[in-house]
Prior knowledge:
The protein is α/β, with parallel strands linked by helices.
Amino acid sequence: MKFPGRRKIKHYFPATQGKHRLPKSEVHPTQDTYIVGLDETIVDVIATVDDIFLAQHGIRKGLSNLVTPEQASAIYQELIAENRISDHFAGGTIGNTLHNYSVLADDKSVLLGVMSNQITLNSPEYYYLCDTSSNVDMHHLQGVAGDIGRGITLITEDGERTFAIAPNTMDDIEPSSVNEELIANAAAFVTCAYPLRHADKPIKATLMKCLELTKQYNVPVIITLGTQHLVEEFRDEIQLIIEKYASVVAMNEQEAEALTGEPKALLAAEKTLEWCDMVLLTAGAEGLYLCGYCDDQYKRATTHSIKSQDITNFNQWEFSRPQHKQDCEAPIKVYSHIDPYLGGPERICNTNGAGDGALSALLHDIAANYYHLQQLPHSSKHTAKHLSYSSFAQICKYANRVSYEVLSQHSPRLSKGLPEQEDSLEQAYWAR
């Protein structure tokens, strides 16, 4: 387990601790530190076409078109035959998050979902596996007879993007495929709101089983909201699930407004704290907010400039470490904000996945706290029960940096860790 930032490794890795002779890809619940995620497994296919191609397949230009497995297969085979495909990307909100977490932490995560029993060379499923970190344990995927989801992006000469979406078997994961021990020993469980759309599919029952297990074993639950339209459609159900199960809610400003009815990002985050312990809110050019709770006796004042928006001096205690509200004798709300790293990339290649990247950084910090607690339970870091290893402000900085990296590349998945050489100011910050 790597720790976020630049730290003195000797403090966290006892030299006498036994090590495996060979690394093992499969998670051992009672030995490893890991996070678990449930996702709809899907591959994003990027291709260049013309208007005639769209018309031939009955695809409406500029829209998201839901297609049958047969249509998707016919489209894909023609794209292959005519050499029109430029890229395959493993997709899925949680799949992206787990991959990025494993790259950042250089440690294990577990993906729950489905995978085709028969995988052929250069098939979408093949690219999904190739595009996923080897530290993501896929031994617990449920085998299915058909294809996993395909999201085909068709780009015409005028630059217009048209989408052909084939869910296929991606929602067919059965509750029986969930290993109770795996959930019970996880550092965190992460999922998204997408399965709520499918009351008639097994994935929703699987999600509810996972959530019940996390509650039974007191495992932190992180829920990311998906899209604005999804939140608008299932707002009441999402709110109830957050209240009952969630420790952390991750969302963007549009989703936050849809959930709370509050158009201002900071106030939307404050309102969401009525239902959970922490909120990660990415707000585009406005930056990133991290909000939560801390016991009054453990609060730490910031040395950064004090900020006031809709809440006066809202970042005053941002050097505090997040806690579950129920673990605080006198809980206070803590808010932190950071502007886009370096003002944002000079050229944004891809906005898809920036929020997932930020969430993976937060998950890394939560898992690091869990790991440190297992290794050094009597450390002063654990005098009180905390949700994360670092402060609100430090997590903001880390999440912001990961988002920048995702925005700077075409794929929503990190191909490597963050650059080794950072500016001296950042080195000084992480050395704190």
